[in-house]
Hints:
CATH architecture of the largest domain in chain A: 3-Layer(bba) Sandwich
Strand content of chain A: 25-35%
Mean pLDDT of chain B: 96
Shape of chain B: elongated
Oligomer: heterodimer
Number of helices of chain B: 27
Low-confidence stretches of chain A: 411-415
Distance between the termini of chain B: 97 Å
Helix content of chain B: 10-25%
CATH architecture of the largest domain in chain B: 2-Layer Sandwich
Largest sheet of chain B: 7 strands, mixed
Number of strands of chain B: 50
Number of strands of chain A: 18
CATH superfamily of the largest domain in chain B: Probable tRNA modification gtpase trme, domain 1
CATH topology of the largest domain in chain B: Gyrase A, domain 2
CATH class of the largest domain in chain B: Alpha Beta
Number of helices of chain A: 11
Structural class of chain B: alpha+beta
CATH class of the largest domain in chain A: Alpha Beta
Shape of chain A: globular
Low-confidence stretches of chain B: none
Number of domains of chain A: 2
Order of helices and strands of chain A: HEHEEHHEHEHEEHEEEEHEEEEHEEEHH
CATH superfamily of the largest domain in chain A: FAD/NAD(P)-binding domain
Distance between the termini of chain A: 36 Å
Structural class of chain A: alpha/beta
Number of domains of chain B: 6
Strand content of chain B: 25-35%
Amino acid sequence: MRRYSAFAVAREAARYHTGWERAWRSPEPKKKYDVIIVGAGGHGLATAFYLGKNHGITNVAVLEKGWLGGGNTGRNTTIIRSNYLQDPSAALYEKARSLYETMSQDLNYNVMFSPRGVIMLAQTEHEVRGYKRTAHANALQGVQTEFIGPERVKQLVPIINLEGPRYPVLGGLWQARAGTARHDAVAWGYARACSDMGMDIIQQCEVTGVRSEGGKVTGVDTTRGAIDCDKLGMVVAGNSGPLAEMAGFRLPIESVALQALVSEPIKPCMDVVVMANTVHGYMSQSDKGEMVIGGGTDGYNNYTQRGAFHHIEETVRALVETFPMVSRLKMLRQWGGIVDVTGDRSPIIGKTPLGNCFINAGWGTGGFKTIPGGGWATAELIAKGEPGPLAAEFGMERFIEGRFIDESVAAGVAH
Amino acid sequence: MSTRLANGGRRIDRTRPVEFRFNGKRLKGFEGDTLASALLANDQMMMGRSFKYHRPRGVVASGSEEPNALFNMGEGGKFEPNQRATTTELFDGLSVTSQNHWPSLEFDVGVLNNYAARFLPAGFYYKTFMFPRPAWKHVFEPFIRQSAGLGRAPDKETLDADTYEHFYFFADVVVVGGGVAGLQAAKTAALSGAKVLIMEQDPHWGGRAMVDGEPEEGFVQRLVGELEGMDNVTMRRRMMGAGVYDHGYLLGYERLRDHAPMLAGPRHRLWRIRAGQIITATGAIERPLSFAGNDIPGVMLAGAVRDYIAEYGVSPGDRVAVVTNNDDAYRTAIAVKKAGLEVPVIVDARAGGGGELAREARGMGIRVENGKAIAKVTGGKRVKSVKLCAQAGEGAVLEEVACDAVAMSGGWSPVVHLWSHCGGKLVWDEAEAMFRPDESRPPLNQNGAGFVRCAGAANGALDLGAGLADADAAGKGAAEAAGFKARGDTLPDLAQDDALPIEPVWMMPQGAGPKLRMKAWLDYQNDVKVSDVQLAAREGYESVEHTKRYTTLGMATDQGKLSNINGLAILSDTLGQAIPQTGTTTFRPPYTPISMASIAGEARGEIFQPVRRTPMHAWHEANGAHWEPVGHWRRPYCYLKGEETPHEAVSREIRATRASLGLLDASTLGKLIVKGPDAGKFLDMLYTNMMSTLKPGRCRYGLMCSENGFLSDDGVVVRLDEDSFLCHTTTGGAERIHGHMEEWLQTEWWDWQVHVVNATEQWAQVGVVGPNSRKVLEKLGGDVDISKDGLSFMGYTSGKLGEFDARIFRIAFAGELSYEVAVPASQGRALWDALWDAGEEFGVTPYGTEAMHVMRAEKGFIMIGDETDGTVIPQDLGLHWAISKKKEDYIGKRAQERTFMQSSDRWQLVGLETVDGSVIPDGAYAVAEGENANGQRNVQGRVTSTYYSPTLDRGIAMGLVHKGPERMGEVIDFPGTDGTIYKAKIVDAVFYDPEGEKQNV
């Protein structure tokens, strides 16, 4: 792999950029791999990357039914934060956040991680108490957050209206090292690095069946033929249910549409990410200048990757109220993705009823921010056959035991 | 130069001049102009700067596909960035400034990017700016953010000066697009008797036919007249079909006052339409051609050039070169010539040239060059000349032709956006070189049938006669699908166009080298060139979505209306695959950007979310209420007297209540009436307690859990009579619990004879609390017996309390002798006033939510949302007594039998008393020794409620602690976030009157 740098760009400019090589190879599938990862989204690619980097396993294929990074990795609002309440979540999300810090250098691909800071607004006494609790928990978890007052909020977010007649801003939970990254670049950077380690990323290759023998996985059937493997990782977010069904088990997961939208681009006016859970909306400004806005999930299950308009309406109302200047902007585009939501809104990383078959799913609305952490933990699980400390609490058995990791406590809506 | 012609201009009224300002300059136009046509008339071809390279840009199009001519418009509360000049109707006083440049449009420092363009190809930022690491956040990113962004951000403190509204509409058939196809489709559908809505985004009916020729003289006017005369037809201009959603849901975006901001009334109206069938007659958009310098101001779409001449009497230039791969652009050459301007050359990339129109152009003496191409356009801020070459070659220049405008046409693409929003599929039409709707794969409605059809040019029927026939069929089909008997209309007899076929030209010339490809623009606004798409393909970004995201092709404010097809054709060529194999990116709503304000509608400020008010709300307001939002209600947190702080007020209220008499407005408590022969059985399933055994006239405190076993709500249940119960819920829980009950009744126990009514707002309720509460009620008189024995603790009675129709519950949340009195809401304020007057001698004090919280904490009563957070089961809170052992089942029981729920390791409720009397901070955790496997400090409990107790004059708290009840007397540490360690002793949670003597008097 030839390294990317300003010098490389200058060198290529001299020959009209005709010398750039492919970012990742596009190989034909082999007969057999040590590990097959289904799903070339952020989590699938990160899992493959850490299988190679941390565990030396590189005879790996990542299968993708569409184009890599085309699911929720390429549809989210790119927020990265780790101000979670429960210990297992905070550990996982903070691991991910810290890996984002050096991801551009680690992958030699600029993913534009920008630790611009995230504020979660407190607009009721109940929220104030909730975020103070999170700040206490985070302090003991090694996650740097603080509860800040309204003046500091206004300083960080000049466009905010603190004195909205309905829900005045009483303060907020501030995580300075949280931020955003360029979502597509995360998938592309991992894909390039995986390909460079000799792994095969096979796009346009849909898994149609999971093969097993004696209770253990032996391979998959795909639209490009059967492929054998010793171990299988399922990392397919919103399509986890159908894939699990092929492997003969069911998941405690519901798939629902989650929507987002962007405004037309304007000159910089907001440097940090703001989340307002009481009124249901969050917003940041991309480097292109668009206000990137996230909404809620639909109240019914579906796989259509589009959602109902009333969620857009609810979200835009909330933001117009919170940031009055939004009223004079225009909505450029709205879209949806399918998120996989578990009973406690926390992910599943663990073994499955099928031997040597592992799963990473159920990220709900929090998938993008955990890509490196989820990949790290899933790679460890697949390599060792048992979860390490990061994934230990996230197995599916927790639903049977009642050992929930419920984050909705801290954030009323999307996280 | 571009200028106003002496004649022509169907839309403008030359007798009504209009003055407007552009970058501070005063300019004149006419009523009926668009901002773009008025600027062109003033020789202002250059209208903006591009996004990345800050290149000078002129207007390219005449409609909503325009990518370049975007302006900051208006001032103060009427300011708006990125206003599209081609769809902005001119009005007196309009004021715009151009965007994305510093210091001025003419001299822009950002153009340095243009000179460095060779070093800034698609995606260069993924390969650079990585070292040193902090530089991204502090140096590179701020620079990139500042140079991107287009329009100015609206002022942060200025409120929107306009109003907006929503409108709901239902129709059998909705037609989007008021060109001849749309009008015809609407008429045919309406003739069947179906209720029809037709909308047109433009201020005028008729679409392109008004420029290129109607089917017959006066056709549009006649059709519009006929439709206007039909009762079952609604017509709207300046209204765009913004998006199609599932189940026939369609958004209409009506711009009511953009063209006349001086008039009163809402600016935009968002139509929320349920349509039986939708017909999209949205026309087609012309494609640019990809040749070097195709972005220099003066290069325009051929159709737009003749629009400006015919509609506005404006010439884009004196010498207009025409370049095309199809016959349609000859119409532009002819129009230019007829307007008295010069057409130095028509460059037709097709070796065989054009048909009838080409002959006509030649007949007018226009030079036509077949098989030729533009190698390059010269000029900086304005076209100077075109250099011609052979289309088949690599761009060797044959000659240079001076001109000041170029009209280009790469063919037309049907507007398939609305068809595609909800899943309609496309098919590639090889002959016409375009994607058109695939009739066999339409968007499906709730019955699995198609609910959108396209008509006319939007359906690929570019020929006028074919388009009319297509529209007639669509109107008939839609009416039939909506359940009406329909037949076709009589159509004008039209001969088919004698046009020669288009020849796809994706690159001009065909063999253009890298130098030319780096100057051939695909996406004008985002500065994406042919070379960028090819680079993406070379680097493996082969999916059309990868290419889009890597190059930003089609991501600008025009969402690729001009660039998408050209871009994916270049991508296909580069990959050596057919265009349909490449496919398109996803079309998403809205069709063109719509105002956020229209989406928000009327809901802003005070009515953003309507405040729910109790009958006593105004009294609280007048008596110093310090408000707290609770759900959609506002409740007094406390009542401030004089200069006191909220903290002082809360203490005063508590002392007064405990000493004598307090009043609490408890009207917000949820009140659900559960009635029917199976009501008891139903409540036994909902509550952990046994409710069916409750006697009429008695109250019982009950707990409700989720299916997962977690405590979700609590409240007092009253049995009003044999088959009716009144279930009190928390203030925030009323709607949620009502929904929860309905869900179970409707999905699981639909055969049980129970119904539930939410009567929360029908009753006002007052907590009369304190040692003198009985006395004050007795003062009111009436026929109810509220004596110690007449109404015992947890008893209920109803009757006349003074003049009031009262329900009286003897319950106690504060631990004092107390009653809750409910009266019909209409009597609420009068009751409050009566209690106020009667209580005067006892020093009656109103108290708010905080005093209520503190008093219940002093008594060790739990609060939903404090002691519970969705992870707590009743057993954690020592509420075993409220869980019936006799019942076979209740919601949550099975979940509570799971191993972790049964574990003795769970954190359990205790009281906490700081050693020094201080108050533990909200949300603090109790630490334990050591760290866990993830390096996090071990914890052994947390505070759930913590207050200063004025009664005990010390900090008190409740908390969940690991095996807490077994550890009474132990002192544990709660670190604050500031490093202070709060030492607290584990004690019983009941701090006040543990024997309950106060409430049983």
